[in-house]
User: What shape does this take?
Amino acid sequence: MFKHCLSFAVLTVFAVGARAQSNPQTADSQPPLLTAAQMAKQTIECKPRKIDPDVLPKGTVVPARVTVNEQGEIVDLNFVDRCPVGCGRLANAILSVKECKFRPYIVDGKAVPYRGDIPLTAR
Assistant: This one.
């Protein structure tokens, strides 16, 4: 129980801290949302941990959405929809996403922020 609470606390600190570092944006000025193929090209390394088997049925995919800044760093992490179970129960898989490395996304010769989905899969 404590492990899950601690993981959730770390996740909360990461998410809040990442949002504080990101540029303020309105709903109209969201960075572009890349397709799975585009995200694959932008990904240098990303091997998120599998979701524990006692949390969701095997093969269930929960997409986590990352926002990446001009330098290729993750500045925001959330779920595409809602957390299908208590988010603390997905903490190990979610926290592993912050270890992913991405390339800057170049548009018209300039690096721009972007968003994309990272699939978290139950084992």
